[in-house]
Amino acid sequence: MSYKHKKVITIGIVSELTGLSERQIRYYEERRLIEPERTRGGTRKFSFTDVEKLVEIANQMEDGLQTAEIRRLEQKAQQQKDAKVRDQMIRGQLNAAFPNRNKS
Fold first, then answer.
1. 6-21 per-position pLDDT tens digit
2. What PROSITE patterns does the annotation carry (predicted)?
C-alpha cells in the first residue's frame, strides 16, 4: 500500500493542512464525501489521499456545488474508472486466451 493511502493523519492535522475546520471535515464525512478510518477509541484517521480529496471538495463547494452534486460526480467518475478497469481485464483475458489474434 502506498504511503498516500495509509490512514494515519488525525483530524487536527488534516484541518491544518487543508484550511478546513474540523466541523467542516466532520460534515463532509456525514455527507459521505470522505470516509476516514476510526481507531478503537473512535479517533478519525485520514490519508494523504483523503487530504487531497478534501481540498478538491472545498474547491467544488466554493464553486457553488452542493454536496449531493459532488457525491454524484464522484460516483460517476468511479463508475467510469471501474468500467475502464473491467475493459482492461477483459482485454487481458482475451489476449491470454487468444494470444495470436492481433498478429498478422
1. 999 999 999 999 999 9
2. HTH_MERR_2
Contacts of 46 (CB under 8 A, 6+ apart): 7, 8, 9, 10, 11, 14, 34, 36, 54
Q: Strand pairing partners for 38?
A: 44
CA distances 52 to 42, 49, 90, 97, Å, are 23, 5, 31, 40
Cross-strand pairs, 37: 45
User: What ranges do the domains of the chain cover?
Assistant: 3-97
Q: Three-state SS for 20? A: coil
Using alpha carbons, select from 38, 59, 48, 46 the residue that is nearest to residue 11: 46
Nearest to 6 by CA among 29, 40, 36: 36
Quick one: pLDDT band at residue 54, thresholds 50, 70, 90? very high
Q: Which CATH architecture has domain 3-97?
A: Orthogonal Bundle (1.10)
